Each structure stands twice: as C-alpha cells, then as structure tokens.
C-alpha cells in the first residue's frame, strides 16, 4: 500500500517534470516578438477591402455567386456530416472504456479513430476523386469519412465522462450492454452528441481547403482564389456570407441542444 | 497503365462503353488548376462549359481545383478528360502516362522595366529575383549566403527556374543559401518588404498583386535577374482519348481564343489571352530543369 | 433462494466492504438489513446482483452462480432481481415514464429496444406501478423536475414494473413522509406475501424493521453480527449492531 | 397573481407529450439530407464502381518510405514546439471565454451573446487570411505561426467546451450559491472540478489538430509538417506521403495515451 | 429573523411550489417543516436563500430583503445561511476535505480562492466539522467513494464549517442510521441552543420533529396548514397535515 503510494508520487513527479521540460523546450526555441513596418499600410488595405465587401458578388444571374456557393457548401456539409454522424456511433461506442470492458476492442477502436484523424484530408480527397471523379460527391465522401475520426473520439470521451449511476440501474434490471447504453448513456450523451455533430457541420462548411482541392464547388474555391490574388472586397463578402451561415447553424444548434438538455 | 473506358457516367447510366476508345464520348470533363503567375483569377466554370459545349456539341463539365495532383490522379482513373496543368505538373503527369499536351495558353508579355504588360502574345513567362531597393545585392553572384524566399519545390517560377539560375552561377540553391518556403508569391514580396528575407523569387511581375495593398512596392524593390523562359500553362488530355476527339478539342479551344466573347471570358477567368497548339517537346526544357535541380536538391 | 458462500469484498482503495459473509435467504423471506452508516449494507445488496464484483467467495441465486454467470445467463438472473437504489439512479434527463419502462428492457430483443418500441402491456405495467406509488400524473415530467421523495418513488416504480422474483431495496423510504412510507412498505409486504417475492431491504428505522421483517440481519464493519427472526431482535441485539449508546464511541464507529 | 393563474393550466402532465414535433423534425432532417444528396448526385453504384481505382492509389501508399523519417523529424519537432505554445495560449484564453459563453454560468444573454459572437468570428477567419494578416504584422516565422495556432485552438476549444459546460450537473453549483460564493469562487468550486476532464480532452484534441493540420504554419513560412505533404504529393511520391502519415500517427498516439492518462486522473 | 411576505412560487412547467406564504421565523428558533412528499418543503427552504427565485412576494433575512439583494450584498446574506441538501450536491470528483472547505469560500478574497489557499484555521474548522459527523478519517477520500449516509454527513459538515447564523437542512438525516441520526440532530440542537443559530429543518419523522423542534410548520400542496409550537402539534394536527389515514386517498394526495 505505502509502496504503491510512493510509486504513484514518483510517477506524478515524472509526469510533471516531463510536461515542464516540454514547455521549457518549446518556449526556449522562440524568437522575440517584433512588429513590421509594412504592417500598418498592408493591414489597413486588407481591412479597408474587407469592410467594403463586393456586394455585386452576392447574386449573379450566371449562377456562380455567393448564394449558390453557400447553398452548395451547405448541401455538401449536411450530407458529409450526416454520414459521419451515423458512421461514428459504433466506433464511439466501442472506443469508450467504461462501456466496452474488453481493453483490446477499446484499443483497436481508438487506434482506428486516430488513424482516420491523421489521414490527411487531401489524401482522403484524392482517394475519392479516383473513385468517383472530382466534384461534390467526392467532397461529401471525403468530409463524411474524415469526420468520423473526430466525432468518434469526442463522443467516446464524452461517454467516458457520464454519470454512471443510471447505468447501474439498467444493469440491475438485466439489460445487456447495448440496452444499457441506449437507456442510461444515450440520454446523457445526446446533448454532447448534437453539439459535436453541429460543430462538425460548421467545420465542414468551412472546409474550404479540401473542397477547393476537390473542385467540389461550394464557397471554398472562390475564397481561396480571392485570397491568393488579394481581392479583399471579394474576401469580405464571402466572409460575411460564411459568418451569417455559421451563426444560423449556431442558433439552430443551441435550439436543438436545448431540447435535449 | 490503367484501364480505359472513355466516358463519364454522372447520371448513373450503365458503363457499357468500356472497350471503346472514347470516340463516342457523351460528356467531356474538364478541370482547371490556376497557374501561379496570375494576378487576377475567378473560380468560375459555367461560362467555359457553355463555350466548349457549343463548340463540341456534347455536354461539358468544368470544375476548378486548387491542386494539380488531384487532376493528374483523376485523369489516371479516367475521371477527368481534359486538364489545365501548369508546366511542371504536366511533365510529372506525362511521366505517368496520365496526360498528353495539346495546347498552350498565351498571355501578353511583361515589360522587364516596369512590370506592365506588353502587347505581344507569348507562350512563356519568366521568373525574377527581386531585392529591396536599398539592398547592396546587385547580381546573382551577391546572393550567396543570403536569406531567400522560395515557393514549394514543385513550383516552376518559385523554385525550379530560380534554383537553376543560381546553380548556373555556382551557388547551391539550398546549401549556399538560407532558404525559407513561403506560400504565395504575394507573401514572398511582403516578406521581402518586411525585411524577413533578402531576396524573393517570383513570377514576373508579382508585384502587381501586392500593389493594391502596398503602393510603393515598385519603388522600394528592384529586380536583379530574370530566369530563362518558362512555358505557359498547358491544356492536356487523357492519352486514351481518340485522335479524332483530341483534334476536335484542340480546334475548339483555339476557336474560343479567337472569338471575341470567348477571349473575354478566358481572360477574366483564367487570365489567358488565347491558345496555340503545342507538343510534348516544348517541355523538354522543363524536364531538363527538373532533372538538374532535383538531382541537387533531393 | 440466495446463498452467500464465504463472501468478502475489498474496494480498490483498500476499504473493506464485506468480510466472510455466509448465509442463505430462502424464497419468500422479508429480510431487513440494519447497521450503522458505512457498515456495508449497500455493498451487501449490490453483491447479490453483482453490481460490484466480490473479491472472494461465491453467490448463488436460485442455485445458479451469479458470480460465474456470463452474458445472457447473467442478464437473465439480473432480470429477475429488481433493485431500488439509495440515490435513485434515475436518468435525470429522461421522463419519468421512460425511467420506469427501462425496468422492462430485459424482456425484449435488443433491436426492439434500440427503437424504443415497448409493447402496450409494458406501458400499462409502468402506469400501474406509477399509480401504486402515487405518481401517475407525473408520468411525462422529466425526472429532474421531481421532489426528492418523488424521485425515490420513481425508482420504486421501476423495480415494481420489472416483475422480478427478488427485490433488493436500498433504503427505499429514506426520503419519504410517514404516510407514503407506510404505503410503500405495505406494498412491498403485500407483494412479498401474495407473490412470494423475496425482499431484501436496507432500513435505518428499527421500528419499520420490526414491523415488516420476517428476518433481520445486522451488519457491522462488513461482518454479520446478528441474524435472526424479529422476535430474537431484542433491544440488546440492536445495541450490539449499533454499538452502545456511548456518544464518544458512536462517532468513532460510524466513521469506519 | 394573474400571471400565476394563467400558468396553472398546463398541469396535464399525465398525458404523453405529442409526438408530432419530433416526427416533423425527423422528416425535415431526412428531407434536408435527401435534398442535399440529390443536389450533389449521390450514387452508391458510382462509388462501388470506383473502388478499384481507389485501391490503385492505396497500393502506392504502401510501403512507407522509411528513409524519409529522418528527413521529417526536424519539421515535426518544430511543429510540435509551435503547437505546444500556440495551444497553451489558446487554451488559456478559451477557458474564460467559454465560461462567458455558457448559459448556465452567465444567465444573461448580454454576456453570452457577445462572447459567442466573438467565438464565431474567430472560427470563421480562414487560415489564408490569418496568414496574410500575421505576415504583415509579425513577418514570417514561428511567431505568426503561434498566433495563428492560438486563434485556431481558441476557436475549437471554446466552442466545444462551452457547450459541454452547459450540460453539467447543477447540484454542486447550487451548493456554492448557497454558501454565498461570488461568481468566480462559484465557478472554481462548483464548475471547474466537473469540467476539468472535458477541458483537458478538448485541449489535447486541439493540440493534436494543430500538429497534424499544421498547414497553416506553412502559410506563414514557419515550416511545419504541412509543407511536406504538399511536396511529396506534388511529386507523386506516395511512399513518402505515407511515411509522414505514419509519423504523425505515432505522435498522435502518444498524445492520445497521455490524454487518456490525464483524463483518468481528472475523472 | 426570516420574514416571508405573501410568497408564492410557480415552477416554469406550471407546478405550484408555494402559495401565499406569510410568516416570520425569529432568531434562535428550531423550526421543523413537515408535509407529504411533494408538498413544497424543499421549495420553501430554497426560497430562503434564493436558490429559486420566488414568483411573488418578498423574503427578508435579518431585515434585509434577499429578494432584492444583488452582488456582494446577496453573497453576504447567503454566506450567513448554511444549507444541507436533500441530495447532498457534492462535487463527486473532489475530495471530502475540498467539499467541506468549499463552505468557507464566502470568507476569503477571490484571488486567494483562485489559488485554493485556505488558511490553516479553515482547515481546522473543516476537520472539526468532519469529526463532529464522524468522518475525520475519510477527509482525503473522493466523495464518490463514500456510502450514502457518509455523503450526507459530508454535506452536513460543509454547512457546519460555514459558521452560518441560519442553517437550512433538507432532510439531513434521511439516509442515516438511528444512532448517527440522533447524534446529528443533537448536534444541530446544540448549535441552535448554544450559538443561537436559527434552524429550519425538513423532516419526515414526526417523532424527531416533536423531539427537537420548538416550532412546527406543516405544508400541504404549497400552503401552510399548520404553524405552532410542539405542544400544539397534536395527532389531529398531523392528520390535517398528512391527510386522513385513508389508504386510497393517501396515494392521490401524495402525488400532488
Ligand atoms: N466505490 C467505493 N470505493 C471505495 N470505498 C467504498 C465505495 N463505496 C463504498 N465504500 C466504503 O465501503 C464501506 C461500506 O459502504 P456501504 O455503501 O456498503 O455502506 P452502507 O452500509 O450502505 O452505509 P449507508 O447507510 O451510509 O448507506 C464504507 O466505509 C464506504 O466508505
Ligand atoms: N425544478 C422543478 N421543476 C418543476 N417542478 C418542480 C421542480 N422541483 C420541484 N417541483 C415540483 O414542486 C412540488 C414541490 O416540490 P418540493 O421539492 O418542494 O417537495 P418536497 O416537499 O420537498 O417533497 P419531498 O419530501 O419529496 O422532497 C412537487 O410537486 C415537485 O414535483
Ligand atoms: Mg448505503
Ligand atoms: Mg424535498
């Protein structure tokens, strides 16, 4: 007993020391902070552009305008999130160590989720482009599969944090793990689940880089183009569009969560 | 290398035409990757769809991508028929039997003195070494040991050509320099103005991109050297496409470049002024440079 | 029939929950467990349906070893054991009805439960149970909007709806007023008598224990210090269970 | 008085709540999903038909080019270093901001509203824009990289965190109200112990994202592993690409391991 | 002195918690509140320190209106009112000691509390309080590793450590065995007598109410139906509070 306590202290000490060392190493490598001369002129030019958005871009009868771009983005994001939202559930369930008692299963699932997360979006996109060609469909698949890693991880960790007393009650009635999960864990995790899924929806809407690479349309490509030729008025209006879109999602998200809290 | 199967079945039709060599193409898929040497760009696809569709008589699907690797892969899997590729990308794609050049884009040349456009159409551009006006660097020879802002190593204007120029002057582009990789030629120029780097390599003349944000950019910087010409963007097709079809596509693009309405569109969207036929040998120079530089760098 | 065979339980942090328990509870008994706070009463109950793993010994429920049971066999033993928890263990975010219905999940296929499709019969059972504890009109209220006693009654209703053969009740009337207390205890007694359902109940009230029990088990520091019929449970016996009424001493012992 | 009488009516809590609302919501979601599917030409057959093509690329990804490991070690370390600093500052800012944004901590929407708006704004800024701004302000190098990562982490952590704060057990907070704690003490004793574990989980998650998605570092000329993806993909050197993936995976698994340990300590 | 001036409380879902309460509790009284489960006892207590906003009327504590108080003034009124919760409201993840110490935060500067620097005096106070409830040796155990009764006692210790002038106790002995019950109630009585601390205690046990109270208030469906000294609290009076012992009827009323 006392010996193991000593061990615990030693381990804690080692961990603290390790963290400390990492921080010292990280900060030691930093150069000093200095401001640049050009900053005022360049930044005021950027801000001036952003604050006088290119209203003409909002609607264009030709079809490639902000509204259409946002609509495409929303469609891709919804579908991508939907796929991920469904597919992540079994992984999240099996990666939660308070639900799955089998350490190997938990480990394997956590590994799969980590693997999906480190798989770069662009390589994932490439895989799907080869399968279905560039376009929205590939975008949806890349977002849908890519998001499983994040959703699975966050949800499994929030499952690991729930209050287990209700779970006991279900176990006592003779429920198997799945039933226990549905009746005791799901109601508690649901608000978090929706919060994560809605967050992912938002991330997907902003996933300009991947969608731009894929040629999936949406608002990402024009944004990247505008940024790379420093067309700040255009950037301004697109940003405005995204902010409005994200705010709407945020409002819906809190409404949805309010239902479940 | 890979199977053929000419057409795209976006509408879910059965893929019956597997063995044919694309002569019965029902739809043409075109993808565009912006070249780095443009100072205006639009991410639009629809207008070109219409122009090309009218010329070819089959539906055309155009999309815009920001990364050439995906186009090449898509062409390898028969998902894209026509790609707009920058020169380096074309060479790499050709190595893998993924693409065959048919056309090169034309742009107006750039005045070496002040960066303004000339009225001569050319199918190549140059890259330049640029330093601050008050810098004591006068020529490429002075660059040794200086801090240089490159673009990604796959960039023709932002790395390969300038590196070759340095090598010609007896300077190793990485070991004899203090290299930084930057993203975007505009960032290179801003970093130069900031004093973060001593010399930037950009396409000619990237200062136009920054001029809107920083008025005095032309006064405060100085070009010390230009590189050899770099071939302009290509339009390439999948090799499996029938010669007949290739012919048609070539003609269609050249027509568009000549047509007044077409010209306006390709200028606005891709900053192209027109198209000329091209052949693979035009890109031997690219291969040569690639080889020369990559031997030293990798 | 519930058999404890030399059962001991030590918590991971080293606290001794139970020590060498060896006893048999017959079908239809009404056993009341008494003891100081921290004596191990809850631990005893939780061992019966294996909510806690015991560290030594074996427990048999109706001649089946629950200690060794696995998977479906374990679920079925548990389904026949209803439990009323000391701190209710309700899903606070779910409605009262859903909490009570959750006592029924052991009877249906997993698939059915995934979609939450309870047969009508179950809903009637649940409503009946709620009526028994006087909460029918709160059926669709969220559990966290109930008063303490109401939450306790939901927990009772859940155990009733389960139609178990054994009911474990951990201080089922702690938060109830005298009338509801009487009513709940009467109900438990009635179920015990009429349906021959075995009752194991932790109680703090000596009066209630004497009134309802057929057998009283006294625990102290995890050991059985008394086990006998109500008539044997004299004041002297209780003194033994709770320790002498020696103020100084009580504090020390209660802390164990 | 009048108000009270009006409110007395909804006492019919004994009939099941109407199911139309949830059903309508379900239908709406399904319609949205189907509509989106139609808009983008979703097709399973196309996906199945294309799988062999996908395989072709996967084959090229293995085996990883092990020799490349040593080459990416120093950018990887550089990335970790900047991620440590950026995430730490982001997390430090995220904590108070999330508290301000959580409706069960500050009940007034005069506080939560602006806090949420700021968070939304931060999350919306595209990396490229951040790069343009930071390069102008600080020049190129690790400093703008750290600032970018800081804003990044701030957005991620704060958003996830305030929503999880909103679902904690109100009991301990109530107890702190009752002892007369002011807001800060109330948070430290009633809220913090309950949320520390999920905060750590989001913090480490943001750290992990910063390491693997450090493309933003490339944007400000600060190196980082992102550039190497671009480089290897650009040359179609998939073996090298997959060695970067494996490398990142190892780092992420190590972080994951510590993340689990630390959260266990806090639970 | 605590004054209720025509206080009513309606919950957002429409349930009536309290209706037109009008009474005054003097300093040093030992008031016991009795009533059926769901009668509004907890609601009554929570109104005193404004854990719930009342929907009508006003409550004064020592001549200061807590209903109108804001910021620091409110915190100070509350600091002087200790509360023992029906469901403990402990931070399950923190140690017992930290839970008890959290009762002291009202006395110190915010900065100090951010770093968790409690003076030695506070730690002694906390240990004393834990000793009083017999839990000194569990001081550094996590709260979720305690038995039900032990958790309740931590909640009591927290209120004791607070050194309040009024203590509100919501069924403080519900999960305690008779001996600990006696000991806790004796303690409350002693504090009440010696330090003239006002006690307002919800109890379900009529015996305990009669034994310790100086005044009994009976609630029924949110209204005061009895208010008088112990001697006035006859069996008849209790009948009025709990309703006639009419089995059928009890169920219905209990549900209200
Ligand atoms: N999860 C746990 N981890 C460690 N020790 C525990 C745990 N649960 C209970 N204990 C300890 O085990 C002993 C017996 O606890 P148990 O809950 O069985 O007591 P009890 O008789 O039910 O008490 P009460 O009447 O207070 O509910 C106590 O000392 C308690 O502190
Ligand atoms: N948060 C809430 N929302 C809605 N109704 C509530 C809430 N809390 C309590 N109620 C209702 O208010 C009434 C009075 O509740 P209260 O908690 O005051 O009862 P109580 O007298 O303390 O009962 P018990 O002895 O069971 O604890 C009950 O009918 C209860 O259902
Ligand atoms: Mg217990
Ligand atoms: Mg109550």
TrEMBL record, chain A:
Topological category with respect to the lipid bilayer: Multi-pass membrane protein
Please give an example of a GO cellular component term from this record: plasma membrane
GO MF annotations, alphabetized: ABC-type phosphonate transporter activity
The UniProt similarity line reads: Belongs to the binding-protein-dependent transport system permease family.
- Name of the gene: phnE
Query: Which chain regions cross the lipid bilayer?
Result: 12-30, 74-99, 111-131, 137-155, 208-229, 235-253
The compartments listed are: Cell envelope; Cell membrane; Membrane
Q: Where is the signal peptide?
A: none
Originating organism? Cerasibacillus terrae
Q: Which keywords are on file for this protein?
A: Membrane, Transmembrane, Transmembrane helix, Transport
Q: What is this protein called?
A: Phosphonate ABC transporter, permease protein PhnE
For whether the record's keyword set contains Transmembrane helix, the answer is yes
What sequence ranges are listed for the domain ABC transmembrane type-1? Answer: 70-253
From TrEMBL, chains C, E:
Protein's recorded name: Phosphonate ABC transporter ATP-binding protein
Q: Name one GO molecular function term.
A: ABC-type phosphonate transporter activity
Q: Corresponding gene? A: phnC
Can you list the GO cellular component terms from the UniProt entry? membrane
Q: Which SUPFAM superfamilies match?
A: P-loop containing nucleoside triphosphate hydrolases (SSF52540)
Return the InterPro entries for the record.
AAA+_ATPase, ABC_transporter-like_ATP-bd, ABC_transporter-like_CS, ABC_transpr_PhnC, MetN_ABC_transporter-like, P-loop_NTPase
- Organism per entry: Cerasibacillus terrae
User: Which keywords fit this entry according to its UniProt record?
Assistant: ATP-binding, Cell membrane, Membrane, Nucleotide-binding, Phosphonate transport, Translocase, Transport
ABC transporter domain: residues covered: 2-246
UniProtKB/TrEMBL annotation, chain D:
The keyword Membrane is assigned to this record? yes
Query: Which molecular function terms from Gene Ontology are attached?
Result: ABC-type phosphonate transporter activity
Membrane-spanning segments: 21-40, 82-107, 128-157, 186-206, 213-229, 241-259
Per the record, its GO cellular-component terms are:
plasma membrane
The entry's localization annotation reads: Cell membrane
Pfam families for the chain:
BPD_transp_1 (PF00528)
Which positions fall inside the ABC transmembrane type-1 domain?
76-259
The entry's keywords: Cell membrane, Membrane, Transmembrane, Transmembrane helix, Transport
* Family statement: Belongs to the binding-protein-dependent transport system permease family.
Q: Give the protein name, as stated in the record.
A: Phosphonate ABC transporter, permease protein PhnE
